[in-house]
Amino acid sequence: xxxxxxxxxxxxxxxxxxxxxxxxxxxxxxxxxxxxxxxxxxxxxxxxxxxxxxxxxxxxxxxxxxxxxxxxxxxxxxxxxxxxxxxxxxxxxxxxxxxxxxxxxx
Length: 106
Fold this sequence. Notes:
Blueprint: H1 20-29, E1 36-39, E2 42-45, E3 72-82, E4 85-96, E5 103-105
Antiparallel strand pairs: 1-2, 3-4, 4-5
């Protein structure tokens, strides 16, 4: 039986705020279909020790606290010009949790 990666134990899922061990437990109960198990937006592929979530960062990875807009860190990147006007794009580069102070950089 495959076990959750040791560095993921005790941490929380960034898309739903559940403990990684709980998500893992429910994923392992799901039937294996086309080499993948699926539970509430999480996926684990056969013979893998890491599950995949929705890819969002709505919850702190360390404490599971729901992140506020103020917690999200952004950066602005230039995209050149459009008809002579400068254009830029705002990129999410990480977060700092207001609950525990944990900082994550992407």
